[in-house]
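Support request, please re-run this one:
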Amino acid sequence: ELQFQYVIPRLKENRKPGGVYLGVGPEQNFTYIAATQPKMAFIFDIRRQNMIEHLIYKAVFETSSDRVEFLSRLFSRKAPPGLTEKSTARQLFQAFRAVSADADMYRENLQAIKARLMKEHRFPLTPADQESIDFIYRIFFDTGSVFGYSASFFGGYGATYADLMTATDQQGQARSYLATEENFQTVRDLERKNLIIPVVGDFAGSKALRNVARYLKDHGAIVTAFYTSNVEQYLFQQGDDWRHFLTNVAAFPMDPLSTFIRSSHFAFGDALPPRQFNRGRFIQLLSPMAEVVKAFNSGQLTSYEDLIRMSK
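Re-run finished. Output below.
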């Protein structure tokens, strides 16, 4: 999803900071959180390992004062000299790429992550969860800033961590959560306040989304953005899962600016059917959540093609 920043300028139009961000998957969410500046964020995923990865991030964010320290802890590499709070993401990754992995630092960091999560936060992590921490954190150590999703359990098509973090929007402006110190601190502040909550749950299930929707309603909160990646495409391939998902979405408190962010292999076209790209390329699309719910409730949305036609 190298184009994931392209939609950020439109996403920010007329939207003030605040509200609640919803998302799925790993660190792409941090960039959208930095852009939308919510008061709270919930990250859903059916994979428990995604929750574990977010807990690793939480521990690293909380113990890192700035981007340099964050990357040093995340990849277990000593901080290169010459980097400052004004350094660009590209300068950060170029500098860290020249630093070798430090096995002693890796072991110390791994123990510090577990201690922070289990002793300070008292999260009841199972032995299997702890093994997942070992597995995930080892990937960051072994592959460093050239970490590619094809090397991880999430699957992917070769984009590296550095590629994602140094990507830009269509105007060439870098907007990743590591692009500026301000972006980084926005996410770090939420992590330190326990306001980025990873949730293990099924988009089409009867618990995760509905319980969060109920919580938001009870607290008078509004969803500002919901990043679904390409999950909806699979929901439409799995019987009535798409119906269950949209029924769940309808339960969330929203306003006219509440927006879906989705990734697709298909291009939008008013007159022609969506054009499929090759398997390795995604485009990012936006659509108002309320309009999707309205179309679903009226029977006008019955296919993935309908959903893409509502997205721009």
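The CA atoms of residues 39 and 65 lie 21 Å apart. The radius of gyration is 19 Å.
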